[in-house]
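Support request from a user on the community tier.

User writes: "When I paste my structure tokens into the form, the page sometimes reloads and wipes my input. The last time it worked, I copied everything first. Here is what I submitted, just in case something in the input itself triggers the reload:"
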């Protein structure tokens, strides 16, 4: 008797639809407030782009705390699709999940790249093409298109793989649908172009638009942008900024922190992240980690760590701290050294009254002063020529105007790489050899100078030399030659390397590249002939590198690789490099031992003729005729609507929770009755319906 019209509500498109938390670089989660209008826009675009009729079966794979779950649920419920939910154990087991997808005839799946990879591998192993699975959407990470993913999609060419991109602050904002030819797929899929009512900008310095092919930071604007972070107005203002390119005034755009570029097809390619990570001496360093350690010091109120290049080619970590009480820079460095690796210890610590800030309250890195890398020790002058030379070498390596005799090399910003450079300069200046351990133990110019008199002579330096007619074998070569003479050609010391190549391969270019490698390195075209019982090195002037090609199936490949790796080298005549190319052929499936028709004949033979009273078929019919005798032709259930004249076969799932005690008693009843728990519950349901 109630109205069938849509209810009238006071909700507007800018009202929140959900809050989902995302972790931040500080470790404190941020609650992203997503408006309803953004979700409606996403879902309408998704329905138009992906399609799917009412009744389409969509998997609910992702956790409720991940924003994709809203897209899964609402894209199904808004358009009459069926949402199918796997158990947690099934979600975690790729093999079981593939079986579940097949059993439930799932047609749409949202899955991150790693899950897609696992599903593809399990499906290929099980021989399940999953033909009903016609749509897969990947989001959350870069989509790498491996060989097994390509093979999985080749088995069902009607299936479409979509690559979606979007941080939690915008949900999905760009998309790319891969072609139906997996062989033409790139190694990494583009993230595509903006979805409906969404804008994507690739911006450089000063928010200038980057040209196609030029890497810049990705900014997102339009209907997909969140309202901001719940209760975090400062962080909201930092990440959600004014959009200078918007067609309407007052619009905002979100700084994703991702590096992208437009490709020649007008689609976006993901490159990497824009963050505060630094790279010092080959190590990637998170300044926030050092800042957190510094602020643990009882006398430090604030800290900022940056990388500075005050001298060309010399990048050093510098910490700026605001101290609450008197603090020496050496104390701060030692505090960090006790808690973090050596490469994360700042080369200098600058004490400030306050950290410089920009107008919007952010750290003004450009206003941080140049640190003082000057010596902090006694500054005692050198007393001998040796001490003076060592002090000068310390200063040169550290990039300082001067260094005192008692100044500590490592306290002045020295590290292991600079120590190696210093040892080389000491070797050149004094023709003596001191070890790295000596420098770590001595540490000061005066202590190093005092050890020079007891140091051994410098080793010979490696230089280009005039070669004799017969170059003797190196010690490593002698070991190989000795084993070769004792055992004959052997694969004992082979170093096999297998590379998987996909896509179009220019075999001539690969062969030429191997030839260039051998031509550049004499050791790769050296053989060990003998003369008068003595082996020597003979460098061949020119070598033709062969690249034989073998067509092979995937099942034959492992043994072929093992065989190639075990092939021995003849050191006297063969160069120490061999390459072979294996071309995978289309898999050949062995015939199944039995087919469904065989099963049909077996079943008929087993059950026998229904007219034969002694057959199993007749016995079964007689049993069930007696067991079902007297049952009503129709079970009439009370309902609030009349039974339709034509059955619709529409059903539904009803979830019923039972407590632990009832579950235990049901299990006990099943064991006592010699039945399964399913049989007990089925009997209970039947008993209920009959009453």
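"...and here is what came back when it finally went through:"
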């Amino acid at each position: 008797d109630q109205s069938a019209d849509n209810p009238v509500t006071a909700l507007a498109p800018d009202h929140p639809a959900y809050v989902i938390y995302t972790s931040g670089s500080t470790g404190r989660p941020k609650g992203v407030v997503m408006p309803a209008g953004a979700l409606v826009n996403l879902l309408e675009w998704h329905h138009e782009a992906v399609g799917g009729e009412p009744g389409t079966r969509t998997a609910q794979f992702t956790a409720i705390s991940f924003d994709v779950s809203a897209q899964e649920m609402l894209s199904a419920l808004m358009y009459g699709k069926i949402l199918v939910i796997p158990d947690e154990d099934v979600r975690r087991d790729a093999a079981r999940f593939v079986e579940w997808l097949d059993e439930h005839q799932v047609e749409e799946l949202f899955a991150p790249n790693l899950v897609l990879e696992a599903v593809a591998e399990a499906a290929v192993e099980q021989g399940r093409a999953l033909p009903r699975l016609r749509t897969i959407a990947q989001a959350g990470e870069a989509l790498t298109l491996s060989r097994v993913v390509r093979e999985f999609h080749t088995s069902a060419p009607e299936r479409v793989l979509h690559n979606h991109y979007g941080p939690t602050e915008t949900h999905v904002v760009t998309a790319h649908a891969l072609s139906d030819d997996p062989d033409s797929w790139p190694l990494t899929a583009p993230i595509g172009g903006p979805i409906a009512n969404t804008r994507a900008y690739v911006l450089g310095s000063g928010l200038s638009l980057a040209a196609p092919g030029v890497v810049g930071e990705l900014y997102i604007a339009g209907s997909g942008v969140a309202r901001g972070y719940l209760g975090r107005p400062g962080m909201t203002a930092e990440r959600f900024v004014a959009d200078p390119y918007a067609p309407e005034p007052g619009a905002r755009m979100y700084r994703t922190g991702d590096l992208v570029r437009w490709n020649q097809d007008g689609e976006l390619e993901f490159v990497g992240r824009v963050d505060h990570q630094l790279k010092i001496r080959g190590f990637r360093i998170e300044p926030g980690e050092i800042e957190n350690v510094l602020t643990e010091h009882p006398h430090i109120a604030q800290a900022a760590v940056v990388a500075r290049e005050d001298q060309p080619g010399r990048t050093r970590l510098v910490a700026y701290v605001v101290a609450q009480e008197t603090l020496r820079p050496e104390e701060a460095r030692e505090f960090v050294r006790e808690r973090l690796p050596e490469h994360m210890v700042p080369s200098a610590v600058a004490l400030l009254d306050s950290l410089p800030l920009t107008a919007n309250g952010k750290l003004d890195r450009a206003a941080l002063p140049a640190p003082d890398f000057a010596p902090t020790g006694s500054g005692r002058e050198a007393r001998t020529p040796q001490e003076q030379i060592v002090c000068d070498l310390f200063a040169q390596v550290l990039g300082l105007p001067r260094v005192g005799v008692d100044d500590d090399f490592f306290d002045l910003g020295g590290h292991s790489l600079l120590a190696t450079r210093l040892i080389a300069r000491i070797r050149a200046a004094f023709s003596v050899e001191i070890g790295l351990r000596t420098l770590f133990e001595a540490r000061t110019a005066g202590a190093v100078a005092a050890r020079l008199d007891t140091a051994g002579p410098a080793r010979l330096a490696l230089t280009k030399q005039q070669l004799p007619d017969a170059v003797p074998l190196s010690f490593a070569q002698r070991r190989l030659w000795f084993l070769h003479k004792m055992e004959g050609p052997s694969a004992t010391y082979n170093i096999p390397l297998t590379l998987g190549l996909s896509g179009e391969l220019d075999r001539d270019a690969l062969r030429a590249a191997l030839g260039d490698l051998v031509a550049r390195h004499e050791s790769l075209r050296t053989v060990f002939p003998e003369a008068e019982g003595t082996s020597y090195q003979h460098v061949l002037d020119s070598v033709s590198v062969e690249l034989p090609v073998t067509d092979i199936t995937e099942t034959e490949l492992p043994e072929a690789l093992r065989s190639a790796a075990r092939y021995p080298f003849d050191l006297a005549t063969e160069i120490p490099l061999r390459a072979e190319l294996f071309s995978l052929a289309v898999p050949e499936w062995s015939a199944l031992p039995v087919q469904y028709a065989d099963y049909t004949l077996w079943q008929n033979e087993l059950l026998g003729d229904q007219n034969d009273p002694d057959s199993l078929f007749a016995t079964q019919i007689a049993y069930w005729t007696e067991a079902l005798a007297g049952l009503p032709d129709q079970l009439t259930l009370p309902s609030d609507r009349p039974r339709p004249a034509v059955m619709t076969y529409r059903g539904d799932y009803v979830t019923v929770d039972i407590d632990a005690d009832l579950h235990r008693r049901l299990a006990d009843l099943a064991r006592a009755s010699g039945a399964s728990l399913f049989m007990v519950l089925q009997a209970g349901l039947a008993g209920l319906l009959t009453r």
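Agent notes: The reload is a front-end session timeout and is unrelated to the input. The chain has a mean pLDDT of 87. Residues 559 and 565 are 10 Å apart (CA to CA). Escalated to web team.
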